[in-house]
Amino acid sequence: MKQTTNSIVMIRPVAFRMNEQTAVNNYYQKVLDGLLPATVNAKAQQEFDVFVEKLRAVGVDVTVVDDTLSPDTPDSIFPNNWISFHENGDVALYPMFAENRREERREEILDMLEDKGFVISNIVDYTSAEEDGFFLEGTGSLLLDRANSKAYCALSPRADEELFIEFCEDFDYAPVIFEAFQTVDGERKLIYHTNVMMCLGETFAVICSDCIDDKKERKMVLDNLKENGKEIIVITEAQMNNFAGNMLEVRGSNEKRYLVMSAAAHQALTPKQIEQLEKHAEILSSSLDTIEACGGGSARCMMAEIFLPRK
């Protein structure tokens, strides 16, 4: 199994704004005072277009899907939460915490990928769990070490343990389960998505290990990473708050590896961390300030990786 891919799907926003339904447990979202919604969306579109251009310039195959005005989906720019694609032709659809995010699941995106020559042989649909109030938000909640068949998950209101275990059984992954916290107004609160505090590359892992308050759990997670030969690059909680955990390794032309992150994440890293990371992949960063502030997500969340076979 490959850990990285050359192909990704990205959704270009049409009505991007701060989603009031996700702000209840995404502590990264901010209201940008004095900006009209149209201005916020225009800025997000501009950041999106520049980002896509940079990815394509190094040879990443980006399928851009334009969002629609109706239904109202302010977070559609983060498709990795509702869908994941797998090498055996499986597609997984995930149950989403925010009701207005459930509308992001669009079948025509699958049709578009099939038109591009990707083969979809089976859809594994977990979305009925929403009716019972259980959620598992795709590769936001699940960090897949595809090459070593391990899945990492920080439990939260958006990542249910039983659903996670069901996913691992269906897709043949060994579950690595823990809790991760961030300090919000002096209180320790669960981090809403695993991919905010951790990134898994082919030969490295970036992790804010300080978020795992339980020492046994922390050791267990780090041991799992070491066992698979990953160089561990530890980031601080302050760096995580600048989205330095929200990165994704992709492949460009000639299979060259790139570590994709936002400009804010890149600026938050120390020279030593950058040096460590650049041994594994070339850093590609782009300014996503508006998207990060209003959406509370960053570069990783914007890319849904395609591992499907091709015709």
Provide structural commentary.
InterPro entries: Amdntrnsf_FN0238. This is Amidinotransferase. One of its GO terms (molecular function) is transferase activity. Keywords: Transferase. The chain is an alpha/beta fold and 311 residues long. The protein has a single domain (7-305), classed as L-arginine/glycine Amidinotransferase, Chain A, CATH 3.75.10. The chain has eleven helices and 17 strands. The chain has helices at 37-57, 99-102, 107-115, 138-141, 161-171, 194-197, 215-227, 237-241, 263-268, 271-278, 289-295; strands at 7-12, 61-66, 83-85, 90-93, 122-125, 142-145, 150-154, 174-178, 181-184, 187-190, 198-200, 204-207, 231-234, 248-251, 257-262, 282-286, 304-306. The strands form six sheets. Strands 2-1-17 form a three-stranded mixed β-sheet, covered by helices on one side. β11 (198-200) and β12 form a beta hairpin. α1 (37-57) packs across α11. The chain starts with 6 loop residues before the first strand and ends in a 5-residue tail after the last strand.
